[in-house]
Design brief:
Helices cover 36% and strands 19% of the residues. The chain has 401 residues and is an alpha/beta fold. The longest helix is centred in the first third of the chain and has 25 residues. The chain binds nicotinamide-adenine-dinucleotide (NAD) and sulfoquinovose-uridine-C1,5'-diphosphate. This is UDP-sulfoquinovose synthase. Pathway: Bacterial outer membrane biogenesis; LPS O-antigen biosynthesis. Belongs to the NAD(P)-dependent epimerase/dehydratase family.
Amino acid sequence: MKNVVIIGGDGFCGWPTALHLSAQGHRVAIVDNLSRRKIDRELGASSLTPIAHISERVQAWKEVTGNRIDFFQIDVARDYGALEDLLAMLKPDTVVHFGEQRAAPYSMRNVSAKRYTVDNNIRGTHNLMAAIAGLELDTHVVHLGTMGVYGYAGEGFTIPEGYLPVKVANDEGQWSEREILYPTNPGSVYHMTKSMDQLLFQFYARNDEIRITDLHQGIVWGTQTDETRLHPALINRFDYDGDYGTVLNRFLMQAAVGHPLTVHGTGGQTRAFIHIRDTVRCVALAVAHPPQKGAPVKIMNQVTEQHRVRDLAHLVADLTGAQIAMVDNPRKEAAENDLVVCNDSFLKLGLNPTTLREGLMAETVEIAQKYLHRFDVDAVPCVSTWTGQQKAGIVTEEALH
Ligand code: NAD
Ligand code: USQ
């Protein structure tokens, strides 16, 4: 049993992970500033599923399982003192760090959103590193990174797990081998912050011997896990709006309401995917297998399969009879790319991947249908663009605090 702090534990990935780790017998505390709920209000777009207040969520978990989850409302980017005090008090074995602004379109929305994303994500990660180092804690940090740090240039080879072996010649022409961080090629301000996080981790792992695992996760789909199903107040988020909705969940939602599936451009973008059930299992495996003290950052690719966007649209259309609409791509990204990703580390740790199955897609469509009355068609269009005229003044850092 470990003492685990989950930063961002009120979010889409963090909440089901908190429940899963608690169900496994770990002592879990959630730290969250509830900014994601505030962004919902700013955007006028909310989760399709009704999300209970965080105090109702933890109360329901106590009622159903008898397990206690503590909640601390702390902004890890802006309230360093509260973060440091909490870590000093709890001395956690593990901190799982989900607490960042995670939508690429939102991060490209306007200047204010770009600045907020960088300030929030980089400060938060660095505050966590500095606090653990300053308090001299032997805490293992498990961070949720992203496949997007590698970029999607379609190199035609398997993307390794974080590091690239290179040969370098010295001035005398003698060659030696070393491993470098895979050169990053982020496609949005959000993805750029994840690339910058990697350098913070590399430094603190070497300088302060902090044990760090960085999980380069693919696009998460689905909504429910074994634990979130146990009580209506435990239900997980389901984002379908143009900023926060991820592509497969958007397609499944669109199919449920009879909206055409919005394929960007040719739909030739190939991406890595993982079901939310496997997200929680992977994080549990990472928590159970910390790297040695003094070891380099352990980087694992948290993905189970790769798909091309238009193939996903056809799969969903075949399953549901939905129409497909090819729309102008609001993003600046390669129109077509190939992607093959190594995920050996999790397979070796015993992950049995949940792959895209009709049953699981149908389950997500069913949930979408159940909450149809909460659907807002105005939330569907992707209005955040990578270049050109940007959405004015919706988001300000001040508005979020
Ligand atoms: P989310 O927005 O639903 O959850 C993030 C949570 O962190 C929210 O509850 C938010 O309130 C909190 N938070 C943000 N900034 C904070 C701060 N400064 N202090 C305290 N709490 C803060 O996002 P998610 O989908 O659960 O993603 C979690 C993590 O996983 C992110 O770091 C994201 O980059 C990564 N990830 C997500 C996906 C995906 O498809 N959802 C894929 C790959 C990686
Ligand atoms: N897309 C469509 N139609 C849509 C929405 C998206 O064709 O209606 C396309 C996008 O143009 C893009 C692809 O689908 O090519 C994926 O978009 P997405 O919104 O599902 O995923 P992305 O923006 O990359 O971000 C999500 C999460 C982010 C995480 C990332 C993992 O929001 O937190 O880091 O997935 S990864 O993509 O592997 O980097």
